[in-house]
Amino acid sequence: MLDNVKIGDKTIDWQSGVVIDELGEHKLEPLPMAFLKYLVEQHGNVVTKEQLLEAVWHNRQVSDDAIRRVVKLARTALGDDAKSPKYIKTVPLRGYTLVADVTFNICTDDTHSVPVSDARIPNLAALKLPRLAIYALAAVAIFAIALTLFFVKGKSPDNQILSIDKLTTLEGFERQGSYCDSKQHLLFTYQTDKRDFEALYSKDLELQTIHRLNFVDGDIETPLFSPDCSQIAYMVKQGDKRESVIADYNQQGLLNVDTITTLNNKQLLSWSQDGLSLYFSGQGVNSSNNSSAVISRYALDTKTWQQITFSLVEGRGDYFATESTNGQYLAILRNNEGYRSSVLIFDLISNEIKTERHLPFYANRILWLNDDSSKLVIASRKGDFNYFDIESGELKPQTKGQTTLNDVFYHCGDECFYMRQFDMNYSDVKELPNPFNTQVTISTQHLESNAADFNPVYSPDGNTIYFTKKEQNRVQLSRYNQFGQVEPLFSYGPKQAIHNLQIGPNEGYVSGKLGNRVFVFDLTAKAIHYITGEQEQAFYPLFNLDGTSIYFSRLEQGKVVLRNYDLQTQKVTKVAENENIFARLEHKNSGTFVLDNTYSLYQEHDDGQRTFIVYIGDNPYYHWEIAGGYVYFSQARGDNVMLVRVEIEAGQTEQRVLFENSRSYHFNMHPNTQKMLVAESLLPPSDLVKVVWQ
Q1: What does the pLDDT look like over 642-690, one tens digit per residue?
Q2: 3-state secondary structure of 90
Q3: What average pLDDT does the segment 380-409 reach?
Q4: C-alpha dihedral, 437 to 443 to 447 to 452, nearest 10°
Q5: Beta strands in 192-339 (DSSP E)
């Protein structure tokens, strides 16, 4: 077995918890030892903070300082120097990697071992054994080495091969799959153009025939086979109206189509295993419109509702649920606050929560493994893919994943799944004329890219464009100057996202939120500094008028508190006491504005009095800014996104369509207000695929 390991010239004895070298033994605490062991397991790879939290801390909430302390203890035991590392290297903005050589040892008895990396056979002749015994022992040693190499190297997650085969190959956008194993039929939605509706399709994977199943003036959402495949359920979205529908399934045409409910606040999720009920997410009985979502079950025979969960959280609430294969458990995804989510296993027989586990990523889908009601996979839209054991509580990530793979919907065998694969080029940065201007006399730019481009903002003089570019393995903050040159500024992981990107008035700093954390990037020193921690809930970082500090708000003891970060002293101070202010914006021509916790925007006067201007809307993705004596902000209207502007002095309101059939809310007005930057959503090619890790 693998009893110990050599890292460079140090020997690690896992069982004793010591690091051994020529100077003696150095005892290590359990956490630094677990950290070292995980680095060895991931030798050659960069280990992220999220991976460490999962593998070493088992998803407990710990501070960055606690992680750095463990890393420092491990380095001290190895005699390593962080500035010129020979063992553990810090990779900025990513994590840590083990750079020293690693040699595993195979124990043959209490006193002899063979280093795996050298694959040497002991000098058996020196043991003075009979020739036949020597040959036999040599064969055993060779077999042990080969077996260990197979498990250590051949079966290592790093050596797995990811096989992807297309289940659909239509020229367009296929998604939201459901599969019937007994018929070998695939159910999915398909869209050829953003102006078209998403239609309902099925494919016979044996005959390779495809059928369109319905023709309605609306988008089809969440198509689901019943457990016996005799029926399907789906939703029809027509503007602000949403209907849940059930029908008898026939590939030649749907029969007995019946509307279940027209409740707009209910989202169809899944079937019960007995095929007699459907699960929905939405507002509970007698709930207010701003309360967190709950899971409800609709009985098809009695046409009655039963509320299953009662989430009382600050976040979105319970947004996904699916029954185990034996119908005993209900796996639920819950958004607690911000981007934090957890998985709950609810026992439908005892009406008790069996397990609750916080997740290191924001999940969107749960899938139980076939014929196993104790294991499931939890996935996200950003390529996270984890196995979860409800008995042990272990969450194990699947390596060799891709950010372009998501929406898992069927388990087809050992490490085999049906999912969706999409193209990374799903948004473009471009300029548009200000839609409120009657005459357009300017030219606009369109930034070409094969990646997804987001967050475009102008520099204060309007000559430079800052934006983020998302590729499969990284995201990059860049700037594009007036000469057509693109300069990369810094990169970060593909599962993270930047929000609220801002350029300082003197163009010396960039600020925003990277994940949950408010950051500032020094454009001269090319260095990033985080103002808030990952566990904090922070909002709307905005530079003050002269660019010397940054306002941001933070949730503290249930209240939103406005703070100020001084760029020179790097100190954070409280601006006001218990005013529940989300954002403070200082504009050089129009004065000072504040956004309160009801998302109402006010103009603040010199005497401290405030004048109400407009209600922005409580969607955290809505964007707003001040330009040319107006407040501009984006809001959803049915299938479209509107650009609204309110004249600050007169209060007159106008609106124009910003995007059709889209949920992209970001824009940035040019300093001359004649044009604006947007990230326009594209319809990326996507297919349903069979994914196998071999």
Answers
A1: 999 999 999 999 999 998 878 789 999 999 999 999 998 888 889 999 9
A2: strand
A3: 90
A4: 10
A5: 199-204, 209-212, 219-225, 231-238, 241-248, 255-261, 266-271, 277-282, 294-299, 304-307, 317-323, 329-337
Under DSSP, the state recorded for 121 is P
Cα separation, 48 vs 493, whole angstroms: 9
Cα separation of 20 and 14, whole Å? 11
pLDDT band of 465, cuts 50, 70, 90? very high
Q: What angle do CA 247, 252, 256 make, to 5 degrees?
A: 25
- What are the φ and ψ backbone dihedral angles of 335, each rounded to 5 degrees? -90, 110
Copy the structure tokens of residue 544.
């003050």
Distance between CA atoms of residues 517 and 293, nearest Å: 26
Half-sphere exposure of 173 (CA within 13 A, CB side): 17
Q: Which residues are bridge partners to 462 per DSSP?
A: none
Q: What is the CA radius of gyration of the chain?
A: 29
The contacts of residue 644 (CB under 8 Å, 6+ apart) are: 614, 632, 633, 634, 635, 653, 654, 655
| Strand ranges (E), 288-328 | 294-299, 304-307, 317-323
CB 646 within 8 A of CB 653: yes
The stretches of 445-553 forming alpha helices (DSSP H) are none
Phi, psi of 139 (to 5 degrees): -65, -40
What pLDDT, in 10s, does the model give residues 423-438?
888 889 999 999 998 8
Of 153, 195, 106, 100, which Cα lies nearest the Cα of 681?
Answer: 195
Around 278, how many Cα atoms within 13 Å sit in the side-chain half-sphere? 26
How far is 203 from 212, CA to CA, in rounded Å? 9
Q: Does residue 310 carry a pLDDT above 60? A: yes
Nearest to 5, CA basis, from 140, 148, 147, 154: 148
Beta strands 538-543 and 527-530, pairing class: unpaired
Q: Burial of 536 by CB count in 10 Å (0-12 exposed, 13-18 middle, 19+ buried)?
A: middle
DSSP for residue 151:
I
Phi, psi of 199 (to 5 degrees): -105, 165
- Euclidean distance between CA atoms 146 and 139, whole angstroms: 10
CA distances from 662 to 295, 618, 620 (A): 27, 18, 16
242, 247, 253, 256: CA torsion to nearest 10: -110
Q: Give the residues across from 331 on adjacent strands.
A: 322, 345
Closest CA to 321 of 339, 333, 307, 305: 333
- What tokens does 437 get? 């201007």
Residue with token string 């194993």: 181
pLDDT band at 290 (very low <50, low <70, confident <90, very high): low
The most distant pair of C-alpha atoms in the chain lies apart, rounded to whole Å, by 104
Residue 123: count other Cβ atoms within 10 Å of its Cβ.
8
For residues 531 and 541, the answer to whether their CB atoms sit within 8 Å is yes
